[in-house]
């Protein structure tokens, strides 16, 4: 019974984390509508995110009386290097939703499903299972429907599509490195150093692209919201929930991010989402279930 309760607790934590992250792009789009730049949005999010994770690390250190395993210089370097892909994901994703609807941006980000299979095939040097191949084809077909590219009435900005695919590629890298680099230290420490690595990318981008004076009002208006929904709450909930659910069930539950993101864009941004797009979204979620249910049963 306790084991079942733990799984339910894990499902709740992962679902809450995915739901929170699913809301993020809509808030970014709302910040854009108020005239804030990508540099201002990402910089404020990362600064508040680092401060928030620093406080969590401090609290954990006091609670554990400094008994936790501390990161070595090698750990710190590897995590910061891995974190650069985290910074790139935020930048590319936010640049994508600048040019295309949020409902399309999140579908492009979900291309991590087939990109992950491809990366796994390259790293492990073996062909993927039939289930994974079927899932990839379902994702690709679902993407065609979900992005509504068959409908000639919709003209999607090619810049948004390119940034969206780049976001998916960097997110795939982040997922692989986050699960394999310096796993012996606490998730709060790992999050901090990955955020610092991401901040280098974000701050460099801001320095290179911000041609007008930096609008500090972003810190009062959107910075806290973006950091909570993007860099603090989802990672903490996910890292607490995934060990309880397992990778398979956790991946299925985290797919909630997709419908939540589309729903938020539909309600708050009045984005048009037609029936065939919802069918595509359901197909992408179905592909994630197919991949992970089979993976779990093998375990």
TrEMBL record:
This is DMT family transporter. InterPro entries: EamA_dom, EmrE-like. Keywords: Membrane, Transmembrane, Transmembrane helix. The chain crosses the membrane at residues 12-32, 38-56, 76-96, 102-121, 133-150, 162-181, 193-213, 219-237, 249-269, 275-295. It comes from the Bacteria. Residues 9-146, 159-292 form the EamA domain.
